[in-house]
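Input record (one chain):
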Amino acid sequence: MDKLTQDQVNEAMNKTYGNPAAFAAAVKKYGFGIAVSAALMSNANAAPIDVTSVVGTITDGVTTVSSIGLAVLSLVVVIKVFKWARSAM
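The corresponding structure, as predicted from the sequence alone:
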């Protein structure tokens, strides 16, 4: 885990609590550990997850399955039309 600088900790505290009085109130209410953890947790989930490869794989699979399904459906229709035309003769 990367080490946080004092400036990063101060920025997280100010972003979460706004002022030192609000932080002190949170320390009194929840305790020091919880108050600091709440301030630093907002930075922990900042990195987005890259899902482009997964979405691309699913899209390719859907395209393949759709084309196979369309081919099977077309074959069934051709067989039905052939049987219908044959019975009409």
